[in-house]
What we know:
Largest sheet of chain A: 3 strands, antiparallel
Strand order of the largest sheet of chain A: 1-3-2
Keywords (chains A, B): DNA-binding, Transcription, Transcription regulation
Domain HTH hxlR-type (chains A, B): 11-108
Pfam family, one (chains A, B): HxlR
Order of helices and strands of chain A: HHEHHEEH
Structural class of chain A: mainly alpha
Number of strands of chain A: 3
Protein name (chains A, B): Helix-turn-helix domain-containing protein
Oligomer: homodimer
Number of helices of chain A: 5
Distance between the termini of chain A: 52 Å
Organism (chains A, B): Streptomyces luomodiensis
Amino acid sequence: MTHDVVYRADCPSRTILDQIADKWSMLVLAVLSEPRRFNEIKRRLEGITQRVLTQTLRRLERNGMITRRVLPGRPLGVEYSLTPLGRSLQGPFGELYNWTVENMDVIQSFQRAYDHRGEQST
Amino acid sequence: MTHDVVYRADCPSRTILDQIADKWSMLVLAVLSEPRRFNEIKRRLEGITQRVLTQTLRRLERNGMITRRVLPGRPLGVEYSLTPLGRSLQGPFGELYNWTVENMDVIQSFQRAYDHRGEQST
DNA sequence: CCGTATCCCAGGCGATACTG
DNA sequence: CAGTATCGCCTGGGATACGG
């Protein structure tokens, strides 16, 4: 039987999932399909704050998925780009992203149906 | 040029990503590869609380990915199972999960290297 | 057994100001 | 330009108790 699989808290894959399965990491990696500077990334991710973008970039860097390169000259410039490891995540993430795009209409109609229950009173 | 793609806050795919790109949804769907009861799921996801599991299940149900079925008889029993939509997510999620398993060693060594910088003092 | 309701706290995040 | 620092809110989630 394979029936007694348990996802333990200290399972490394769970630890790593916690790092990348958030709303921003995926989008940052998508934006970094080509190397970009800090504010370029920020501009493309509507709603992200400077603070959170910095945190996300640091985490991705720590996990070996992107590199940070300070550009010579003034004013200061920093360029972020994918490592091979980060690029290898584009496959899985792309699949997931495509899935959401393909299914968002269906999902939204499910949501409407669900929200409709319990309140067609009077 | 495809260079000016911007991920807008009201993009449906972003809204949906916010729903499924969290640390528990993926694992719940994995556990539901076959229909299971509430406490079965809970037991297999070490560390999840009743409250959070309930919330996760409700959200997945609202999004049309799982169904909730009350079993006849007492004591009360409830069985959760994947819908076709939920099952179609297993592909993308499986890819992502496999990726983390395949790469967790590399990532952990990156993390150690990163954490090592800046503190080999004295 | 499968929830909901309540209380309560830590910490995540936005806003803002400041630096190399 | 690309951050770090500080502050204050506010909500997510743990713990617990209770209900169908």
